[in-house]
Design goal:
The chain has 14 helices and twelve strands. By secondary structure, it is α/β, with parallel strands linked by helices. It folds into two domains: 248 residues, Aspartate Aminotransferase, domain 2 (3-Layer(aba) Sandwich); 133 residues, Aspartate Aminotransferase, domain 1 (Alpha-Beta Complex). Helix 3 packs parallel to helix 9, helix 4 packs across helix 8 and helix 10 packs parallel to helix 14. The longest helix has 19 residues. The termini are far apart. Bound molecules: pyridoxal-5'-phosphate. The site of pyridoxal-5'-phosphate has 14 residues, from helix 4.
């Protein structure tokens, strides 16, 4: 079966009720037929038996199975949020005295974990610039255990050659972890390029309608077993309700991502060259600095584009205030188009130098392109730029 069909037809085994749509197992725990069965379930943590929904749940398992099939992974684990997926991955595979190499262009909370929390457990980090992947190898030390990237990155839309980074990681026996949140498996499957683990905030395009939070990590069985034990014991597990929403969302992932990307490319082309803008950045615009890499590893350019207002930070505020219906919110990956101005909002506490280091320029607007008619979106942006 092709992925579009797998995303729709992978489902928990039909119950005696003969339901058509997938059931929701909203239960905290599961029962046993005998004291012996219960004892066996607890004695061996590799037994494929449901015990308690912090450990496993059929609805959550359905969601994990789908993501594994779509990403081409052996196994996976779901978490309550994307950040729980990122943090659980760090905590499972990094120990005191270890070092992680990460792209500097990563989501704000990931940046906070790397720079403000990991050192509490004696874990050191080094950043590299996504525009200079040739600088990666010099940062690797004998205690480097993990290399972490987002591609495309949030919000700068930087792209890195997954083949190239995977080869460095193999050479130095380092775990290669990719946050694939912006692309989703419908556009890019990092494991096929040599990544060891793929992390998602399912809150974004996987949900696709801005309803629930979720995270997922997929990879080979051995790595996921270690993550499973961490999540099972420390508790950042996904709720069955959210898993049910997200599993239903995956049924439409492929049509949604194609349309998000079609709209985004259309809008990017309409905005490129606008006199109010310094530049427009979108992975599938030939002007993107990493266009060739995007063409090699992505099916399309995804649903997010950015543009830089010539009018800087004040212009960014003015642009947001001039929107009439387009949403002003910090989420992304919704059917509704969303504009955000990181410099005056999500990243306002950073100094200008810190913002520059992660690619957030004063007039940067991030547009998560929705599924509305693209001409309506273009008209709304043009009227806001005209203010
Ligand atoms: C690239 C990326 N990774 C991780 C996260 C964190 O996900 P969550 O908000 O589900 O915790 C986000 C959230 O915006 C993100 O954009």
């Amino acid at each position: 079966m092709r992925p579009e069909t797998i995303a729709i037809r992978t489902q928990t085994e039909r119950t005696a009720e003969k339901e058509h749509s997938t059931p929701l197992f909203l239960t905290s725990s599961f029962v046993y037929d005998s004291a012996e069965d219960m004892a066996a379930a607890f004695a061996d943590d590799s037994l494929d038996v449901n015990i308690y929904s912090r450990f496993s749940n059929p609805t959550v398992d359905e969601f994990i199975k789908k993501v594994c099939l779509l990403e081409g992974a052996e196994d996976g684990i779901a978490t309550g949020t994307g950040m729980a997926a990122v943090f659980s991955t760090f905590m499972t595979f990094l120990s005191s005295g270890d070092h992680i190499v990460s792209a500097s262009a990563v989501f704000g909370s990931t940046h906070t974990i790397l720079t403000k929390y990991l050192n509490r457990w004696g874990i050191d980090y080094s950043y590299f610039d996504m525009n200079h992947p040739d600088s990666i190898e010099a940062l690797i030390k004998p205690n480097t255990k993990m290399l972490y990237v987002e591609t495309p990155s949030n919000p700068g839309l930087d792209i890195i050659d997954l083949d190239y980074v995977a080869a460095i990681c193999k050479k130095h026996s380092i775990l290669f972890v990719v946050d694939n949140c912006f692309a989703t498996p419908a556009i890019q499957q990092p494991l096929k390029f040599g990544a060891d683990l793929v992390v998602h905030s399912a809150t974004k395009f996987i949900d696709g309608q801005g309803r629930v939070l979720g995270g997922v990590v997929v990879g080979n069985k051995d790595l996921i077993k270690q993550l499973y034990l961490f999540v099972r014991n420390t508790g950042p597990s996904m709720s069955p309700f959210n898993a049910w929403v997200l599993s239903k969302s995956l049924e439409t992932l492929y049509v949604r991502m194609d349309k998000h990307a079609e709209n985004a490319l259309y809008i990017a082309k309409k905005l490129e060259g606008n006199p109010a803008l310094e530049n427009v950045k979108y992975p599938f615009l030939p002007s993107h600095p990493h266009y060739a890499i995007a063409q090699k590893q992505m099916k399309n350019g995804g649903g997010v584009l950015t543009f830089e207002l010539k009018s800087g930070i004040e212009g960014g505020r003015k642009f947001l205030n001039s929107l009439t219906w387009l949403s002003m919110t910090n989420n992304l990956g919704d059917t509704r188009t969303i504009a955000s101005h990181p410099a005056s909002t999500t990243h306002s506490k950073l100094s200008e130098a810190e913002r520059d280091a992660v690619g957030i320029t004063p007039g940067l607007i991030r547009l998560s392109v929705g599924l509305e008619h693209p001409d309506d979106i273009v008209e709304e942006i043009l009227q806001a730029l005209a203010h």
